[in-house]
UniProtKB/TrEMBL annotation:
Gene Ontology annotations for the cellular component aspect, listed alphabetically: nucleus
Protein name: Uncharacterized protein
InterPro entries registered for this protein in UniProt: C5-Methyltransferase, SAM-dependent_MTases_sf
Amino acid sequence: KIALEKLGLKVDAYYSSESNTNAIEISKNHNKNSVVFVDSIENLTLEKIVAMGPIDLVLGSSPPEYSSNASIRKSLIENKGSGHYFLYFNHILHLIRLTNKSRHIFFLCENSNP
């Protein structure tokens, strides 16, 4: 949010699909309730995304739980740990593309492994 403000970009709304309650409280404290917290990423539906849209920028990151790329790949296959969040991120991007029609969508998915 700070980076977008410093760039002087006009933002109509900020949405967050955060599952960590501590991170939510920190965000609420820093952003003075200017961020709308939506359902968990696993429960976001096309209807919910339509209600938020149009969406131009999506940022995502998995929790930093794994120390090697091999364990990340394994978590994608076995749906354990944080690797499956990447698959949800990709699914959400697909849903946004469906609703955005001809609008561009920009995204960044960060790998935050230690």
